[in-house]
Amino acid sequence: MKYQLRHTTRYGYSGAVTLSHNEARLQPRELPWQQSRQMRLEISPLPARLRARRDFFGNHVSYFSIQELHTSLEVIATSRITTSSRPQPDPARPTPWETAANIGAPGKLQAPPTAVADELEARLFRLDSDFIRQDPALANYARDSFTARRPLVEAVLAFNQQLFTEFAYDPEHTTIATPILDVLQSRRGVCQDFAHLAIGCLRSLGLAARYVSGYLETLPPPGKPKLQGVDATHAWLAVFIPGWGWLEIDPTNGSLPDQRYIILGWGRDFADVTPLKGVMHGGGNDHPEVAVDVIPLCEDDQ
């Protein structure tokens, strides 16, 4: 699949801003099944400084500072993306989930020598993070799918469906600060809530799971044109399968991410992959307006 991607963020301030420092994570990752080209970042007002780097997790980060007086900020990221099919593990892989949870844990099983680097990376994603804390209630909820000796991949796929069928999508019910235990109790939330909750459940069982930020192509109703700016960022997660790699799941839609999913970045939770954040002197009432377009292209489009 080929896509034209456009992500626009606008801030309007009630007072003048004298100085702002910002970080943008708006460039899609390069992966075996995802290639990005013609990436452009347009910033208004023009920044005094702009530099690029990669963060601890390998995500693309653009740092910029605006040192002139301004009452608004607009950041537009555009790129062309080509996606292909992701690899998928064999659902019948016999490794019980308990074995995977014990690999690398203190005093437990050690990973095979060929998998040491992958396991060392995965250990970070077993730990608590800003938005996600392990809790017995989370582990207990997940045990409906993670029954004794059940193969890991089979249990993960069942858990994805469990969340999809038992939770309702409700954008009015939660905020960025809603604790995941509240989401568990209410059974309502949005994609970010469901990704955080799923990660919390998996980590509470001893498994490694990471937060994935990106985009999902949305389709208009039959017979209706696709409107501009109606797409949005999306959140899902990936679970570490020892000896294989990271398996992505999307509990919001009860699906496995395919060519319609575009990855911006990943981290321990949303705090690690916020698309745009910063600090400023002055200003006020800076709630952003965000518009996203994920536009399919013909295969011969350049």
From TrEMBL:
Residues 81-111 are annotated as: Disordered. Residues 183-253 form the Transglutaminase-like domain. It comes from Zobellella aerophila. Pfam families: Bact_transglu_N (PF08379), Transglut_core (PF01841). InterPro entries: Bac_transglu_N (IPR013589), Papain-like_cys_pep_sf (IPR038765), Transglutaminase-like (IPR002931). It comes from the Bacteria. This is Transglutaminase family protein. PANTHER family: BLR2979 PROTEIN, BLR5614 PROTEIN-RELATED. SUPFAM superfamilies: Cysteine proteinases.
